[in-house]
Design a protein that fits this description.
36% of the residues lie in helices and 32% in strands. The chain has 170 residues and is an alpha+beta fold. Strand 1 and strand 2 form a beta hairpin.
């Protein structure tokens, strides 16, 4: 479900707080988590990103917010900026279903996205769980980058990508 309303933006902000504090506590310091939440996942940050073309989606399971995803369409690829799933919904195939749904959109020739060949993402190099999930879903590491995100913090990430399978149906 696309995020469009103020209420939905607040729900994603709250989900981010829940997911990041639960998941990243062993990867980042509390200070870095708070810094990144404010910079990238606060209500103001979400609104700014959405005004720049980022599209947020709420991931639902049994009519409950199970996580969220954010994408940005580039000239020849789709940038998967965020894919976060709450702890209680992990290991249930939600990431796989989400990616299958996204790829179905780009495989439909009637929608005009045939020029999009791949999905790219960034993942923290210390995030072995996410790296394993992405590799299981067909992504591979392309390169590593260290990015100064301000506040004295650096993200050490892998850039990963996955080709979008072409649908032979015309």
């Amino acid at each position: 479900m696309p995020v469009a309303t103020e209420k939905q933006i607040i729900e994603v902000e709250e989900a981010a707080y829940h997911v990041w504090h639960n998941y990243y506590k062993d990867i980042f310091s509390d200070e870095q988590i708070e810094y990144m939440l404010e910079k990238y996942q606060s209500k103001a940050a979400l609104k700014k990103q959405m005004s720049e073309g980022y599209i947020y989606y709420m991931l639902l399971a049994d009519q409950q917010l199970a996580g969220y995803m954010c994408v940005l369409l580039q000239s020849d690829y789709l940038y998967l900026s965020r894919l976060y799933i709450k702890a209680e919904y992990r290991r249930q195939g939600l990431a796989k279903k989400t990616l299958a749904h996204v790829e179905a959109i780009f495989q439909n020739p009637e929608l005009g996205f045939s020029h999009i060949q791949k999905i790219c993402l960034r993942v923290e190099r210390n995030n072995s769980f996410a790296i394993n999930v992405y590799e299981h879903l067909g992504f591979h590491k392309v390169r590593s980058e260290d990015t100064d995100i301000g506040g004295g913090f650096v993200c050490k990430e892998y850039i990963m990508e996955r080709m979008i399978p072409k649908n032979d149906m015309v």
